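On clarity, I found the account of how folds are encoded harder to follow than it need be. Since the whole study asks how a given chain folds, the encoding of that fold should be made plain. For the editor and my fellow referees, an illustration may be useful. An entry of this sort, consisting of the sequence and the corresponding backbone structure tokens, reads as follows:

:::
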Amino acid sequence: MKKEEYYMEKAFALAERGRNFTSPNPKVGCLIVKKGQIVGQGWHRAYGAPHAEVEAIKSAGGEASESTAYITLEPCNHHGKTPPCTDLIIKSGIKRVVYSVKDPGLQKNSSDILRAASIEVSEGVLRGQGEDLLAGYLKSVKYGKPLVTLKSGLTLYGKFASVKGKSRWVSSPATIELTMEMRGEYDAILVGANTVNMDNPLLTYRLEDPPAKNPLRVIVDGRLSVREDARIIGENTLILTASEDTAKIGRLEDKGAEVISLDSSSGEIYAEDILRILHEKGVLSLLVEGGGETNWSFINSKEADKIFYILAPMILGGRGAPTPCGGTGFDEPSHALKLTNLKVSRCEEDIIVSADILK
């Protein structure tokens, strides 16, 4: 492994410490290296907190002079909640900056600013890994939408619930813990009203090492059929509906939920509207844990970006048992959704399949 890649991977690990803390800002890590020794490090800890470069330069102190900074994202050059990082880098005496991903949210090129101050700049080190780390931020900046991952637990032959709609304990305890960890990596989790009414989930992160906050819980419920005694109803829950039942809306709001009514004569809540609203709320990443109809709405509108499927070694069967993808489906194999970057692994007896959706 090249020296630059070695230090950049360490910067990636620092950036991951900010998971779920920084949105709508990106996760960023920074490493300060001098004469082959790490003399400073930092990461963006929370939205509004000092940037990774500030933390790392503070950690390095006087050793930052004549050093190299390894940063996961191009340093900022504008005044926001914090001053420009380029100014601090120049002032600190750093002689070289290496970063992985160019920031599409910057109006000016930070590389030009740094080079004008006689600082050497190298770009694009481990760019692919950096773009994976920053996928939610990059999509938000470029397209004004969160990154969408469809997650389902299913059995052999593709059923994720029984003919009675029961789906609890399809996955193993170890896999359930794995998916709980996933919840800590996303800003929001989305389900449909049918999932709430059948499974009565909490959709919270319940491991010993919790993130800074539980992800926003989103219920898509066009006709406002969600049960009012559901455990999910309360603070940090957003309900998107097309219903005008003001009495029920009021009761849900009294329990702490936020309800947004959308204009839809069909009663359907469209994926494009969901993502627009979540983007406005600063959500960079969305984990969809809904049923087949909810998943299809994101697939059919081409708004899904990734899939994460857990295949359990059991067979449920049942002609009417639900599958992870409902809707009308594609009429020809040639029209089917194509996947890329496929990864397959094991978690105890379960098989984990993850992939990017080809667009």
Summary: The first strand starts at residue 29 and ends at 34. The CA atoms of residues 72 and 100 lie 5 Å apart. The chain is about 30% helix and 25% strand.
